[in-house]
Amino acid sequence: MVRTPARPVLPVRSRLASALRRGLWWGVLGLTGGIERRGRLPHGGCVVVANHTSHADTAALLAALDARHAPAIGAAADYWFASPWRRRICRRLAAGFPVRRSGGGGTADLLSMAGELREGRAVVLFPEGTRAPDGTLGAFHRGALVLAEEAGVPVVPVGIAGTDRLLPKHGRLRSALVRVTIGEPLPAGASPEEARDAVRALHARTAAEPLRDSAVRRRVASVAASRAGVALAFCWAFAEALSWPLMPELLLGAVCVAVPRAALRLSLGALAGSLAGGLLALHLAAAGVALPAPLTTDRMRAQVRAELAVEGASAVRHQPWNGIPFKVYGAEAGRASVPAADWLAASAAARGARTVTVGLGFAAFGLVLRRHRRLYGRYLALLGGGFAVGLGVIVHGWG
């Protein structure tokens, strides 16, 4: 009976370290816009060749490639291994190994990984040798092909798109969706030009692939990103601080997920509206004007009066956590003759912490789910339903 040779299996420690790195970079990229992967690496060791426009390319590949391959990244020895702290960062966070770009030692550095490849590891190389500033692919060096031939493993082309927007060369970190497409292994004996053409085709296809989106999200984002968005957030929060029953966090949940980059100014607009409305509610109540307060209860008002009697203006610090609407605190503070300056200062601290935190939290959620934008309409339905249920529970609990 002919026995099939067992597939090479990397040590558990290597695969565990790779899984931890994959989780780390998947999480980081999830917070900066998300990451998508198409295709898979073949079983066993392989040499991965990819386009290179950004330092974020390494993070993208570590997040996208399977941990069972324990990918190791070829890194420029004259940069990433030039100092002890860079060397430690490169080895621990990127499983990097040094490759000399000058002096004729680069081929020897690559060939030292042949044993790792035979054990089933993926060795990732950027055959251009440096980052391309304009996104175009330069000439590929032969080292990756020589290494694959020496180890008897295939060469796999990979196209990366989005990292040039996420972290441009000599630029600042921005939000962008990163997409990685893994191609089919190249035929044995492929030339550097054929490898470059395969990577270039994958990169072009990946970059040109449209991101599926929701028409509802686009319309919400167009309003939220304009000046009207801040005005809407202000007016919504202003009205809620007086009488409107729907809290501004509901609006932030819709708009900050739709356009995360506008989250801070929308949150600050809502905070300004809450403070202005709360101050007006205090003055109106002090003058004996009683505004409608739907979805509030006598028990809520009694609780707020008891807190104000003991703590004064600082009683509003309980509002973000106890479910009692802000308008109840504003009206009862006016009836209790709480000084307007004290009320404004205490409200700014309490409402500011809640409103800005909620807005930025929804923005982070929007970034993580960016690649699922097409589902935004369903998200709105779930948000509205969840809010209605939560509001019902709170009102019933204070009934």
Please state the structural category: alpha/beta
User: Strand arrangement, largest sheet?
Assistant: 1-7-6-2-5-3-4
Main sheet overview: 7 strands, mixed
Question: Count of helices?
Answer: 18
List unreliable stretches of 5+ residues: 1-6
Radius of gyration using CA atoms only: 28 Å
Beta strand count? 7
How confident overall, as mean pLDDT?
Answer: 90
Helix content: 55-70%
First CA to last CA: what distance? 78 Å
Helix and strand run = HEEHEHHEHHEHEHEHHHHHHHHHH
How large is the share of residues in beta strands?
5-15%
Key phrases:
399 residues; alpha/beta; seven-stranded mixed β-sheet; 18 helices; 56% helix; 9% strand; disordered N terminus
What does it look like?
The chain has 399 residues and is α/β, with parallel strands linked by helices. The chain has a 7-stranded mixed sheet with strand order 1-7-6-2-5-3-4, sandwiched between helices. α12 runs antiparallel to α13 and α13 runs antiparallel to α17. The longest helix has 29 residues. It is elongated and about 90 Å long. 44% of the residues are buried.
